[in-house]
């Protein structure tokens, strides 16, 4: 009789300990769920392709090459738009667009501003850039004649073929075609200031002048 009582007590104690272990384990699991919920981002930037008529299936972190090109062209065009005086507006645009450039690229642009200013290439100048006709976004890799290359999951190269026009006192002082190989990186740092979640890291290679023929079809 005493043996049965002892065995029953031992079984009860073992069951109580097993329940305690289950409670501790569940507490750790709940704490893990709570931490995951707490650290999960409240907003995600999803880059959809411009044409959704046929639908789009992609991982949330993938960025369509057309979006990379659109971002790089839009920001670069804004940087290079001087309506009245490049000596003032170039510096202002570097400052106002700083969220869209990496820190190293900002340092490069500020240096470029000081060099141009010292050479007298900014005061009183106006400037604008636009796509060369029929040289906008082109799908495919750069080696196949496309506009954007995927270097890694978070890094891209966007080639912009642009016409640059500068004027001083109403007279054209520069009218050339240039290819800018821009390096674009993922940077989900501040959605309020940079909803794109991308930044320009200046040049992947050296910008090069494009031959400007009379017949634009020769560029194709």
Strand content: 15-25%
For the record, what CATH class of the largest domain applies? Alpha Beta
Number of helices: 4
- CATH architectural type of the largest domain: Roll
Helix percent band: 25-40%
Outline the biggest β-sheet: 6 strands, antiparallel
Which regions are unreliable across 5 or more consecutive residues at pLDDT < 50?
51-56, 215-220
Number of strands: 6
Q: Over all CA atoms, what is the radius of gyration?
A: 29 Å
**Separation, N- and C-terminal Cα atoms:** 100 Å
Instruction: From the 3D structure, determine the CATH topology of the largest domain.
Output: Nuclear Transport Factor 2, Chain: A
Mean pLDDT: 84
CATH superfamily of the largest domain: VirB8 protein
Number of domains: 2
SSE string, helices as H and strands as E: HHHHEEEEEE
The best one-word shape is elongated
In terms of structural class, how would the helical and strand content be classed? alpha+beta
Can you describe this structure?
The chain has 220 residues and is α+β, with helices and mostly antiparallel strands. The chain has 2 domains: 1-37; 65-219, Nuclear Transport Factor 2, Chain: A (Roll). 36% of the residues lie in helices and 23% in strands. The protein has helices spanning 2-39, 65-79, 86-96, 103-118, and strands at residues 125-131, 148-152, 155-168, 171-186, 198-203, 208-210. Strands 1, 2, 3, 4, 5 and 6 form a 6-stranded antiparallel sheet that branches. Helix 3 (86-96) packs antiparallel against helix 4 (103-118). The protein starts with a helix and ends in a 10-residue tail after the last strand. The model is unreliable at 51-56 and 215-220 (pLDDT under 50).
């Amino acid at each position: 009789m005493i043996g049965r009582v002892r065995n029953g007590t031992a079984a009860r104690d073992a069951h109580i300990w097993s329940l305690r272990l289950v409670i501790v384990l569940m507490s750790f699991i709940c704490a893990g769920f709570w931490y995951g919920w707490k650290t999960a981002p409240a907003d995600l930037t999803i880059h959809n392709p411009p044409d959704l008529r046929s639908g789009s299936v992609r991982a949330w972190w993938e960025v369509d090459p057309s979006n990379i090109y659109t971002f790089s062209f839009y920001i670069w065009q804004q940087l290079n738009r001087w309506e009245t005086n490049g000596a003032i507006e170039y510096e202002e645009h570097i400052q106002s667009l700083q969220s869209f450039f990496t820190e190293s690229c900002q340092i490069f642009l500020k240096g470029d501003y000081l060099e141009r200013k010292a050479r007298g290439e900014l005061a009183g100048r106006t400037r604008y850039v636009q796509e060369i006709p029929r040289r906008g976004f082109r799908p495919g890799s750069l080696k196949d004649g496309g506009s954007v290359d995927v270097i890694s999951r978070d890094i891209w190269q966007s080639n912009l073929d642009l016409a640059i026009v500068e004027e001083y006192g109403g007279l054209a002082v520069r009218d050339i075609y240039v290819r800018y190989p821009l390096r674009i990186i993922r940077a989900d740092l501040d959605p309020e200031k940079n909803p794109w979640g991308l930044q320009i890291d200046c040049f992947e290679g050296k910008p090069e002048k494009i031959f400007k023929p009379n017949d634009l079809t020769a560029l194709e």
